[in-house]
């Protein structure tokens, strides 16, 4: 990933979506060769010279002040996610390699796994910025079991969405799931451009999926902290669940997502049925003595299948990863 090209493409794409009228500018004539704002119009709105803005849009944000960045955010009408993304892009181009973020972990602390296990009434999962589902409680593993291949690699939300045909049946709104996952991955790419596994994942998806390439080229980003999702589970049918995303303060690269159903709704009944089915599919782990390095992830070795013969990943104790 090239930070300079990402900056160029992001600023250009944001400029192209805003018309002069939306920016409060008066347009004289109709002979405009650009779909949105011209560079000189953005420069005027941001209060910088045209030459300076051209330098910025070419990807050279070295030494740019917070004041100029804020002026760009206002001129381009960026939302909170886009503003955060622009700041990350600006900082990633100037931060010393020696003080960059540590590699994104594939593990969760045992205390986090215990917290998940204590959440018995709601599916809950923990994912990193690459959207690897690293850990889950029992209901969380049951909810995402249809996307598990039973291997040792954790389920990756983006890879499953674009490369697993089952995702089209699993997600009630596949287009939304696809757009959300790419927007989150793009945000992480700006935040952590030196992550080699992230670069490899993006390369794999771009090579194997044209639909991913199209969405990736749009440079859209957004935050994903609250909302609702609809799942079509092969055992219990359709569930529409509200979710809340909570960043773990001690592990800022990890986010815990918990799902709940509206009380006395069909989704609440389906969630209760999922809990009943998963309890019947739960393997006996009383004799376990040690867990492998990926224990507790969505995608661990599968246990005895429950009703509907959907494999349920086996949970083991999660290592601290410190």
Question: In words, what does this structure look like?
Answer:
The protein is of the alpha+beta class and 322 residues long. 42% of the residues lie in helices and 12% in strands. It has 13 helices and five strands. Strands 2-1-5-4-3 form a five-stranded antiparallel β-sheet, with helices on both faces. Strand 1 and strand 2 form a beta hairpin. Helix 1 runs antiparallel to helix 5. The longest helix has 18 residues. The C terminus is likely disordered.
Question: How large is the radius of gyration?
Answer: 22 Å
Coarse shape:
elongated
* Major β-sheet annotation: 5 strands, antiparallel
Q: Can you give the helix content as a percent range?
A: 40-55%
Spans where pLDDT lies below 50 across 5 or more residues? 283-295, 301-322
User: Strands across the major sheet, in which order?
Assistant: 2-1-5-4-3
Number of H/I helices:
13
Name its key features.
five-stranded antiparallel sheet; elongated; disordered C terminus; 13 helices; 322 residues; alpha+beta
Compact overview of the structure:
With 322 residues, the chain is of the alpha+beta class.
Walk me through the topology:
Layout lengths: L2 H14 L22 H8 L3 H8 L8 H10 L4 H13 L17 H9 L5 E5 L4 E4 L1 H7 L12 H7 L3 H4 L3 H18 L4 H13 L1 H8 L8 E8 L3 E12 L2 E10 L5 H16 L41
Antiparallel strand pairs: 1-2, 1-5, 3-4, 4-5
Helix pairs in contact: 1-5, 2-3, 2-4, 4-5, 7-13, 8-10, 11-12
